Amino acid sequence: MSHAVVIGAGPAGLMAAETLAQAGVRVTICEGKPSVGRKFLMAGKSGLNLTKDEPAVPFKEAFAKARSPLTPMLDAFDAEAVQDWARGLGQEVFTGSTGRVFPNVMKASPLLRAWMGRLGDLGVMVNTRWYWQGWTDDKLRFETPDGPRTLAADATVLALGGASWSRLGATGDWASILADKGIKLAPFAGSNAGVQVAWSDHMTKHFGAALKGVGWSSGPYVSRGEATLSARGLEGGGVYSVSRGVREGHDLMLDLLPDMTVPQITTKLQAPRGKASFANHLRKTLRLTPVQIALLQEMARPLPEGLRATARLIKAVPINNTGLRPMDEAISTAGGIPFAALNESLMLRDVPGVFAAGEMLDWEAPTGGYLISACLATGRWAGQQAANWIKP
Ligand SMILES: Cc1cc2nc3c(=O)[nH]c(=O)nc-3n(C[C@H](O)[C@H](O)[C@H](O)COP(=O)(O)OP(=O)(O)OC[C@H]3O[C@@H](n4cnc5c(N)ncnc54)[C@H](O)[C@@H]3O)c2cc1C
To answer: Which fold has domain 3-190+332-390?
Structure first.
């Protein structure tokens, strides 16, 4: 019976293994960590956002420049398919108000347990603590608790993740192995990252406070969503979604009242102020929260003369920052294997029989379920193509 090895047990690798095993191939998963799916489980800690329930066009547009190479995979395993797959593993899902889809239980652990059960039923073997180190002749070479081991494979799927949250397994170490094979990789960069801010002492009392219902923009990237202040800067979905703009050198702007226009804000500010301080006036007329007012003053003191200028500032507060937080803290990474190094089967052009999937490919997308969706879709595609390679 032909044998496939899947290296990396995140969502991409597990989906590749499932697809290969369903095609009748004997599969061994090799995972460097002592247990599978560590980043997937971490993703579930804040609510496992599996996919986004939205029409196919905006869904694919979220993948920016990788949109066209990913299109066949996303068409073959779309947002609807992700939801059906989760339900097939006994996990009912719901769609939140912004179209984000979560399992009812929010966590990843019941889904992962059911998934591993399915893989076990399909006869998939799992070797944990098997750290891939490259090839010796035609065999895959691993460091294991019992010393170095090699495995022969008729096809291999690499699903080693990107290069953030390295403690969960995605170290990016694989880059040097592929570079030695002559594959030109795109440099890794933090994606969906927090922004670093050197706050003044005035802001300390606001650490932990959330900015809710605000708008963000940086260059061409625009988002609406929350961020939390911390000693290091700003973190959270709203700011992650535009962090690519900061990485590309654009200014970061905050809209404190995205549902109001400048004239509407100006009119509200024209209400009699009496003896109230300007901060109190902002609170009373516009319902700005203490953290919003503090941020306005932190970033734009002295505030401009004139109510219209203040209204314009409230719609576009410049967030002075010192760039993105370190890559290891980013939710995901850009960079990795460029699509030019792969054929349409996601097989490495220079290493026949070796396929790649998931975050190790050079695409990026904002948070919102796109990341896991694309990992599942590319994992499934690589698994199918690897099965076809073995059994033409
Ligand atoms: C805090 C957090 C929250 C997130 N929330 C969401 C969310 O809600 N929705 C969403 O869509 N995305 C979310 N993500 C992103 C998502 O989890 C990742 O994009 C996804 O897990 C990537 O899947 P992958 O299979 O490509 O790689 P990974 O999940 O990183 O898996 C790669 C595996 O390969 C193993 N490995 C690496 N190198 C080797 C080696 N040399 N030998 C053997 N094994 C190796 C690793 O140990 C790891 O298990 C979140 C990420 C984080 C950090």
So the answer is: FAD/NAD(P)-binding domain (3.50.50)
